[in-house]
Design brief:
Chain A is an alpha/beta fold. Helix content of chain A is about 25%, strand content about 30%. Chain A has one domain: Rossmann fold. In chain A, strand 7 and strand 8 form a beta hairpin. In chain A, helix 3 crosses helix 4. The longest helix of chain A is centred in the N-terminal third of the chain and has 15 residues. Chain B folds into two domains: about 160 residues, HUPs (Rossmann fold, 3-Layer(aba) Sandwich); about 120 residues, 3-Layer(aba) Sandwich (Rossmann fold), CATH 3.40.50.1220. In chain B, strand 2, helix 2 and strand 3 form a beta-alpha-beta unit. Classes of the chains: A alpha/beta, B alpha/beta. Chain B: It comes from Aurantiacibacter luteus.
């Protein structure tokens, strides 16, 4: 069984994004970029499934600019077998990404498509669900545990009220939550080895997908700033403050 | 303009999240209908929501457990008669609605915090570090609603008609196995008036319990945690407040031993009053806190608990 792992190149999660002065977007020039952290968890989970014998091949795929090759090389250095970049310099919305992934899935026929539950740039939380809809296959979103059971996958999901378990017929789409695993670091020898692993270059047109955006961002602004309040001297002063708020 | 709100009932009653989504739907300027995938009793309860003119009830067992594979075809099938489909951005809404959007070939607008115009919305991006104004060009709108930023519609006073609807039923590709529900006498995190939240400084699960729980008990508060505390295994993930956890906006949020990482602030900075206790006077949490106390939480918090 193959596992397809879509990964996205995003601003590094440790970097505080700055809104451009003209309100046209977030300034990404000379900003450290990394693999979306949820996608890193997806790569790790796919590798573990391969290492356990449940999967045979892990294919990383990205839809993005030429520089997303770096993101794919990271996935390869972690242990993915090969990679596909669907290159476009335009911003591609989740629906169009899902359409491209559907076309790739039709070619590769993976048993599982494993991807992050959301990207930390646009915070959309849509691609996995949309892909599952387009493939007409089941989805296990926000996964904190994944187990292959014959021709099914059991997915434990982080939901508002606790942990929910669903059983899905394969092939299926799984989106990862934070506690699923702790991704490995790529070792230096593996980083070197990754340079010679196959990385296929494609374009959205190769899959016949129109990536024209449906949603226009007209303005991007800084969020309203909260003002720092008052530092109180001791617990008694804090108690007085809380009482004034009607808390105690 | 008619909008359909996909409701997530709490048993047979109306969830606060649904009431917030109804408010957002009303702001689109037309009629609001609600789809309840649940019992007839839940349908009747939703008929009382102010501003709702019709309630659709789908009581098939296939829709009972929030399985997206079954619900999405039901909702997409009903969407023909609507200009907009909305759901609260709960884990159920976030799971089901993008699947509906893809079936309708619509690009969903996720997690809106404000309705600016008939097709224009504000939504947070980059963990709330930026607010984007976005305009949809799709003929139909599919929207999830951040429930903490919309007032709740009145749960009573309305008199909607109730209609039964049937959908395609089970898609047969997924099965609900079980829910390991968090059992707690505490208020639920996303609807609590007061939240006491702990960070990595709490050292371990036992210490977290010893320091945080008595204070929360005394205040009748829900308990939250930073991602660092969750990652370190002190508490389960459903305690997590932040970009990757729950978004909360209580009357009072008490952050204990939480430094105030960007991703945590994204989940709680809409709280009415923020109280921070931290031993590091330079911790970023103090830049957003209304009331701060610099001190060792292991002495300060028990003292606070005893004096309240």
């Amino acid at each position: 069984m193959k596992i397809l792992v879509p990964v996205k190149r995003v601003i590094d999660y440790n970097v505080k994004p700055r809104v451009k002065a003209d309100g046209s977007g977030v300034d990404l020039a000379n900003v450290k970029m990394s693999m979306n952290p949820f996608d890193e968890i997806a790569v790790e989970e796919a590798l573990r499934l391969r290492e356990s014998g449940a999967a045979t091949e892990v294919i990383a795929v990205s839809v993005g600019p030429a520089k997303a090759q770096e993101t794919l090389r990271t996935a390869l250095a972690m242990g993915a077998d090969r990679a596909i970049l669907v290159e476009t310099e335009d911003a591609v919305e989740p629906l169009a990404v899902a359409k491209i992934l559907k076309a790739i899935a039709a070619e590769e026929e993976p048993g599982i498509v494993m991807l992050g539950k959301q990207a930390i740039d646009d915070d959309s939380n849509q691609t996995g669900q949309m892909l599952a809809a387009l493939m007409d296959r089941p989805q296990g979103t926000f996964a904190s545990k994944v187990a292959i059971e014959g021709d099914h996958v059991s997915v434990t999901r982080e939901v508002d009220g606790g942990l929910e378990t669903v059983k899905l017929a394969l092939p299926a789409v799984v989106t990862t939550d934070l506690r699923l695993n702790e991704p490995r670091y790529a070792s230096l020898p593996n980083i070197m080895k990754a340079k010679s692993k196959p990385l296929a270059m494609k374009t959205p047109a190769d899959y016949g997908v129109d990536t024209a955006p449906r949603i226009t961002t007209t303005h991007v602004a800084e969020p309203p700033v909260r003002q720092a309040g008052e530092i109180v001297a001791d617990v008694d002063a804090l108690v007085a403050k809380l009482k004034a708020l009607g808390v105690a | 303009m008619t909008a359909l709100v996909f409701a997530e009932p709490h048993g047979d009653s109306v969830a606060d999240a649904t009431l917030a989504a109804v408010t957002a739907a009303s702001q689109l300027g037309g009629d609001v209908h609600v789809l309840v995938a649940g019992s007839d009793a839940a349908g009747q309860a939703h008929a009382g929501i102010a501003g709702v003119s019709k309630v659709l009830v789908a009581s098939d067992d296939a829709y009972a457990h929030g399985l997206a594979e079954n619900l999405a075809p039901l909702i997409a099938g009903l969407a023909d008669g609507y200009d907009a489909v909305l759901a609260p951005a709960t884990t159920t809404g976030k799971n089901v609605l993008p699947r509906v959007a893809a079936m309708l070939d619509v690009m969903q607008v996720s997690d809106i915090i404000n309705v600016e115009g008939p097709k224009t919305f504000k939504r947070p991006i980059y963990a709330g570090n930026a607010i984007a104004t976005v305009e949809s060009s799709d003929p139909k709108l599919v929207i999830t609603v951040r429930t903490t930023t919309f007032e709740k519609a009145a749960a009573e006073g309305g008199s909607a008609s109730v209609e039964t609807v049937a959908g395609p039923g089970s898609a047969g590709s997924s099965e609900f196995v079980g829910l390991d529900a968090v059992k707690s006498d505490r208020p639920e995190l996303t609807s609590a008036k007061i939240i006491v939240s702990g960070g990595r400084a709490l050292k371990d699960g036992e210490t977290f319990e010893q320091v945080i729980t008595p204070l929360a008990d005394k205040l009748g508060a829900a308990i939250g945690a930073s991602r660092a505390a969750v990652d370190a295994g002190y508490v389960p993930n459903d305690y997590q407040v932040g970009q990757t956890g729950k978004i909360v906006a209580p009357e009072v949020y008490i952050a204990i031993g939480i430094s105030g990482a960007i991703q945590h602030l994204a989940g709680m900075k809409d709280s009415k009053t923020i109280v921070a206790i931290n031993k590091d006077p330079d911790a970023p949490i103090f830049q957003v806190a209304d009331v701060g106390l610099v001190g060792d939480l292991f002495t300060v918090v028990p003292e606070l608990t005893s004096k309240l």
